[in-house]
Amino acid sequence: MYGNRRNNNSGKHINSLTICFNILIVIFLTTIISCTSLDNNADSYDGIIFNEITFVGANRDKGFNYGYYYYVPQSIIDSPNKFIFVEPLNSPNNTNSVSQLRSAALRIVRRNIENANLLNFAILVPIYGFRASSSETMHVWPLCRETLLLRTGNLARVDLQLISMIDDLKERSLKEEFELEPKILISGFSSSGRFAIRFSAIHPELIQAVAAGGLAITILPLADLNSVTLNYPIGIADLYDITGESFNSEAFNNIPKFIYIGSQDNTNDPVRGPAYGGMAINQIHNLLGANIISRFNHARMIYEQQGTAAQFRIYEGVGHVITDQMRIDIREFLAENM
Question: Average pLDDT in the 69-86 region?
């Protein structure tokens, strides 16, 4: 009898240990998952979450059909200038996958956190797909012509959606009793570099400074060149027709610009791709040249002739990449123009 009792108690003791062990495992795994979460979610809070990468979901009522990430250092509150720094997407996957888009955006935020803490600016990275599913010529991330012409669907006027995201972050800052600057800093490389400089031409009144690199061609602040009409995105001749806003040459010319490229960056030429029609390609080659570097230098000369505030820099021996020296120069450029 006593032996049976001891066996029953032993079994209960083992079961209790097993339950406790399982509870500890669940608590441990829950802790690990919470600590390794990709980001916070600000949908339930309309203020700023400081010092943490935070995701804001799409809000069609506020004008953006995709979400965005932000990071705001607590130190911005005591900074005399409180700018938003925007870097658009530029993923090598050219994807519409939401998970890949969010991962690409997170990488951009993380890459810029050191500068945000040093220079006391907020980071905003917008999220939206690369192209409409029905179009092979629409390349959203460089803000191509077809993208600007889109009036329906989630990708309609992503430039205006970005402005709505910026406005949303500004509203959140007011909840914390500080105010972000009306103008923004914007930077990008390759596709996102073309977005940055083109966005600056379309909305120059919103830009404090722009850094754009890896540009096989930059938008020219001209309606025509050598009696040839320059439509967007080569020039600005029909900007009013496709955006409803006239080109503000004075505002654009006054924006400090850092436009850069590597001397060996001569193979990644989107002008050859489907986003440019045959007529546009012929215009570019005939007016500016077929070689990327000669085209870059030609654009430099045109900007100088127009009195446009711009630094054009070629990095010797560098291909289609961003080097550490480029990042240092961009940071110094932003610091000088905040």
Answer: 97
Beta-carbon neighbour count of residue 29 at 10 Å?
10
213 class by beta-carbon count within 10 Å (0-12 exposed, 13-18 middle, 19+ buried) = buried
Residue that is written with structure tokens 């989107």 in the block:
270
Q: What secondary structure does DSSP assign to 186-227, as a single string? A: EEEETHHHHHHHHHHHHSGGGEEEEEEES-SS---S-SEETT
Instruction: Report the alpha-carbon distance of residue 235 to residue 141 in Å, rounded.
Output: 18
> Which residues, including other chains, have CB under 8 Å from residue 301's CB and lie 6 or more apart?
none
Interaxial angle between packed helices 191-202 and 158-175, expressed in degrees from 0 to 180 and rounded to the nearest 10? 80
Distance in angstroms (rounded) separating the CA atoms of residues 220 and 280: 14
CA 72 from centre of chain: 16
Residue 16's SS3 state is helix
| Residue-averaged pLDDT of the chain | 87
Give the tens place of pLDDT for each residue, 174-229: 999 999 999 999 999 999 999 999 999 999 999 999 999 999 889 999 999 999 99
Taking every pair of C-alpha atoms in the chain, what is the biggest distance, in angstroms?
A: 109
In this structure, is the dihedral angle defined by the CA atoms of residues 21, 25, 26 and 27, taken in order, positive or negative?
positive
Q: Is the predicted pLDDT of residue 238 greater than 90, yes or no?
A: yes
Over range 137-155, report the average pLDDT.
88
- Quote the CA–CA distance of 330 and 62 in Å, as a whole number: 32
Indicate the SS3 state at residue 326.
Answer: helix
d(CA 170, CA 182): 9
Per-domain residue ranges of the chain = 1-36
Q: CA 265 to CA 15: how far, in whole Å? A: 67
Which has the minimum average pLDDT: 51-55, 89-93, 276-280, 310-314? 276-280
Q: What is the spatial distance between Cα 296 and Cα 21, in angstroms, rounded to a whole number?
A: 65
